[in-house]
Amino acid sequence: MKLLSFRWKNRDRIGFALDDDRIVDLAEVSAALGGEPYPDMLALIEAGEAGTRFLRDAQAFAKDNLGRLTVIPESEIVYHPPVRRPSKICGVALNNSASNERKISAPDHPLFFLKPASSLVGHKQPIEVYDYYGSVHPEPELAVIIGKTCRHVDARNALDVVYGYSILNDMTGNFMRSQDMVHYYALYPSKDDPTKVERREQHLSYTARYKGSDTFGPFGPYLVTKDEVPDPHKLDVLAWHKDELIAEDSTAFYTYGVPDVIAYVTRYHSLWPGDVISMGTAFRPGGARRSLHTANITAYGGPVSVAITGLGTLVNPVRKMDEVSATAAE
What we know:
The chain is globular. A hairpin with a 2-residue loop joins β16 and β17. The longest helix has 16 residues, at 49-64. It has helices spanning 26-32, 41-46, 49-64, 174-179, 208-212, 258-265, 297-300, 323-329, and strands at residues 2-8, 11-17, 22-25, 71-73, 78-79, 89-93, 111-115, 120-121, 127-129, 140-146, 162-169, 181-189, 197-205, 217-218, 223-225, 236-241, 244-250, 276-281, 304-308, 312-316, 318-320. Strands 1, 2, 3, 4, 5, 6, 7, 10, 11, 15 and 18 form an 11-stranded mixed beta sheet that branches. It is of the alpha+beta class and 330 residues long. The two termini are 41 Å apart. The protein folds into 2 domains: 2-79, no CATH class; 89-184 and 205-322, Fumarylacetoacetate hydrolase, domain 2, CATH 3.90.850.
């Protein structure tokens, strides 16, 4: 099913798409079936098998009783991120074979960072940028939504903890990354004498601003349940800046696939229902041969769009913010 979180007639709701133009409110279906509604997507995911049975029943009921339900026009809703407040969003870095030639040195395991839930925005909602952000560009990525609490997951069974898939556009501020770059001597216990300290030269940059600023996580439009995605490693990924194709790639080119990433992340973090793993950028240039990295939305505006096979198309306008007005409003 294509599930979504949205606002309609002054109420936040969850539902499923009948098609691109029509939506059913799951609370209405639940009432018709004599059950209690799930208040949000996270509660539905946390319900586990009971929630899955409800979705099967809801889909069957809607198919046979569509005339008894309110069919909501897609044009009337405001999209929220499918999961509005996941406990964590794990972004996987440099996870595409096209990135290999850029690596001067790199570890032999997945690299990941955390984005805050406050960075998320839904389909059709604006990405907000300020002049002081400098260059900001899109990064189209497959999002994996976790369905159950897990730790130390074996890669062979990792897909069992997946609830579904979506699209995440991992907006990235290169200028802020360069501003926050530190070249310094890190302090470590000495290899020869662990009671003493030695200095090691390192380069370091933190992701909090350049990956995690507000609206830097466009997410959606749907959460597509995993039964509709037989293989997450055979999905085409396309991205546009305005009307120009800037990436044309496939999840087949991930260096580390979904099971390996889940297994690695859960060596260090428990994953909870609703958590999101963003699998890394579809990096190959599109038909226009422009790079993602030249699609500077601070300078050139938007919209930006990402499409992934079976998951829909995520479109977000760009809003240039006035620093003086924003300061006055605080």
